[in-house]
Amino acid sequence: MPMMFGFAQQRRRMLDAEAQRLTEELPPLGVLRMYLTGDYAVGIVTPDTVLELLIVQKTTEPYHRRADFFFAHVRPRLGTRFLVYTPEEFESLENEDPVIRRAVEQGEILIGG
């Protein structure tokens, strides 16, 4: 397989641009807090690197359907994973759930504070 020079820098620019776009577009959709988490948040960029976003939003949707809302409304331009928690779930699971703990400890907060 041929090696593509400059791939990491190009992929990083694409991920940065998409994160910036979503940071601007998501607050009007009810996002209270959003963390950039996963590989990209810790500096790992490969051809399969996606934006992994942990979102806190008031919703009555079941957990497995919550990401659908964001895919339909913002139509991500590259691989994106939305992990959506209610404020109550986030607060009660913050010290127990490894996904939430990783976002808080290693991620970058993009919305909220």
Summarize the structure.
This protein has helices at 7-25, 63-74, 87-93, 98-106; strands at 31-37, 51-57, 80-85, 108-111.
Tell me the helix content.
40-55%
Total count of domains: 1
The multimeric state of the shown protein is: single chain
Largest sheet: 4 strands, mixed
Q: What would you call the structural class?
A: alpha+beta
CATH superfamily placement: Beta Polymerase, domain 2
- The neighbouring-strand order within the major sheet is 3-2-1-4
CATH architecture: 2-Layer Sandwich
CATH topology: Beta Polymerase, domain 2
- For the record, what CATH class applies? Alpha Beta
The end-to-end span amounts to 44 Å
- Helix-strand topology string: HEEHEHHE
Structural description of this entry:
This protein has 113 residues and is α+β, with helices and mostly antiparallel strands. It has helices at residues 7-25, 63-74, 87-93, 98-106; strands at 31-37, 51-57, 80-85, 108-111. The chain has a 4-stranded mixed beta sheet with strand order 3-2-1-4, sandwiched between helices.
